[in-house]
Amino acid sequence: MALFPHLDSVDVLDVRRVGATIRIEARPRGERASCPRCAGEARRVHSRYRRQLADTAIGGYPVLIDIRVRRFFCDTTDCAAKTFTEQISGLTLPWSRRTPAAAAMIEAIGLAVAGRAGARLANQLGVAVGRDTVLRTVRAIPDRPVEEVPVLGIDDFALRRGHVYGTVVIDMTTRTPIDLLPDRTADTVATWLRGRPEVQIVCRDRAGAYADGIGTGAPEATQVADRWHLWHNLVGAVEKTVIRHRADLHTPTETTVVGPNRTTPPPSTGPVENRIVTRTIERHAAVHELLTQGRTLSDVSRILELDPKTVRRFARASDAHALISTARKGRSILDQYAPYLRERIDGGCLDAARLTREITALGYRGSAKTVARFVYPLRDAAAPAPPRPAAPSVRQVTGWLTRHPDRLTDEDRTGRQALLTRSPALATTCRLVRDFAEIMVGRRGHKVQEWIARARRDGAPALRSFAAGLLRDLDAVTAGLTMAYSSGPVEGHVNRIKMLKRQMDGRANFDLLRKRVVHYV
Predict the structure, then answer these.
(1) pLDDT for position 310
(2) Taking Cα atoms as reference points, which of 377, 270, 364, 387 lies closest to residue 327?
(3) Which PANTHER family does the record cross-reference, listed alphabetically (predicted)?
């Protein structure tokens, strides 16, 4: 029976197929048995009975082992057992209806895919079993003893996101899970660590509860803050800084400088008013010429690339001079600023509010409505201004400041350099980020205090808050920026826990989840 090494201790009498099942009849070898209580040998047979054991399948067919086992008298006088049933090594277990091989297969299936899916898979493999039996088998797995673990990793995971959280403990040397704790409180962590005095290093995130629990349960252990969390927190501070200086993201398009010391408008480069009048007359003539050809207003708008409202206004005017707002009678408060306004409009500035602010700096004391009444007709007649280039997004700029320069494209480098040139605050942020990255990559934790001082002195409010948080957890941060340990393996197991929870549709009790996490590696 080379296919069944666990049958080497019995004599196989018959092998036959009965329906869809392969039945193997056997009987135990030898004339003696060992008492499970006193370990004394017995030879007197009390009785015999049949045991039917389910075994692993052959070719998809279920296997049933039919064996006649014996009950012996225990001849040891001081033994409490009068009789006992013999157990065949590798084949039988007390009160079990499966062989150890079949039980091990169900256990492995249950650890891998849990209840319903495990039952379906086992039935396909030729072992008839229900989902409850699969779960009972998993829950009955004994906990293996935990050896000395000098380096631990601790992180939280969601049992019910936003409501209930647990803690996973990882052996950082073997990168295997050791235990799952039902919550993430400092008392639970401290109680667990008190029973393991060999712990020397504990890797954790920035959570204060874990810091307090480790400090209470293992005060001599070195706490190591995870570098990924440090960088993640820094990126968040940089993003807040970019949002604070969002106005600096826009590329300046205006070159005209207006200041309180300026008393005269800039010199004109040409007869602006004459150009506006000429353009208005030409457009008026073109519109009416197309209309006389039988074109519709929509056709005229498409051919001349003008706004439909502008075409309609030109069509209604019988004379082009009626459209020119400069032919006004009498004096106005805007007369001395009219050349400046026409030049700005011809240069592409069509915002009446902005023009009002500019001429106010030059001495204008009138209302914004007066400027608007002057500007709107000229704006409609003027050529459309070129579109303003789109500003980079906050996320894009955050990436410029936090990614390695070698990973930026040429376009990103150009945009980054232009942004840092016009924004001193973001330039300072970029220098601080670069220096922190050098400390983290080069494991120069001894320089972090100097960096914190610089960030609190020169950095934006978000960076100052980040630096203050580092100062509160300085020992763990320094260790994290100096030692080679990190919480990467712990995060990997947190993701695996998420997968196991989804696999069980989120209905796993904590004890079942713990068995699957600890024993299925």
Answers:
(1) 86
(2) 377
(3) TRANSPOSASE FOR INSERTION SEQUENCE ELEMENT IS1557
